[in-house]
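Why does residue order matter? Because the sequence determines the fold. Keep that principle in mind as you read this record.
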Amino acid sequence: MKHLIIGLISFFIAWSSLYAQDGPRVGVPAFDFPEENNLNLANLVTEVVIDLLQNSGRYTVIDMTSEEQRQAALDRAQENYKAENWIDAYSALNPELILGGEITSIKFVKSNSSTKPGYRAAISFTLKLIEVESSKITASDQFSSVRSELRLTPETALTSAIESLRPDILNFFETHIKQDFPVIRINDFKKERVLSITAQIPQNLALRKGDKLKIIHMEKIGDQMVPSIIGEAVVKTLISGDYWNLDVKSGGDRMFMLKDDLTNIRCSE
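Structure:
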């Protein structure tokens, strides 16, 4: 189980409490690296990926790399969940996602040139997604950089190598972690059919006129809120802040029927 923790990103199904302005909550424990003498490099890789996620503006990142934070999670799990399972421990910190990685290779090449001294680095690692509630791994991918540009130190060379993978890492997240956003109001309807809505969507997602979003309805089945797609909306205009007007292209009749349950209607990527 210890080695399962190292490589995962886990998704805690909590649709009903996910708010667009915060983004999915991503907990990040320290990445695993089999070379125990180079754990400082593993910590560096973890820190760079944390910064990458934070700077994307799409996620609320919970740093879980320190022993103190892990122990706090275990203590809360013992108290709140009466369990020793690691999933309960991470749930105690209230992340919706847990990101972890397993570093398979870090290589350095030193330049002995007197005019251009320094280092080049290359890295390979794996990221995984796991659903917290079921412990099911939902996605996994490997990443390998080319040799970095020449840098003065091994650490800065390694950072450069990871930065070269930025588009691939963000694409992995955006592909496998879809966000949804609250519908604030119904703007217009005609003949029992919703024509336009206002939704709260972070500006940092850089939506453009014409972008399409799914309309979903959250329905309670047993103890869970289960999403179902009821239609499609198209981005029209930014009102102000994080508030956007969208035209409802399909599912307007179904949405009209659910107008009294607006808090459970959302737009989704």
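The chain has seven helices and 13 strands.
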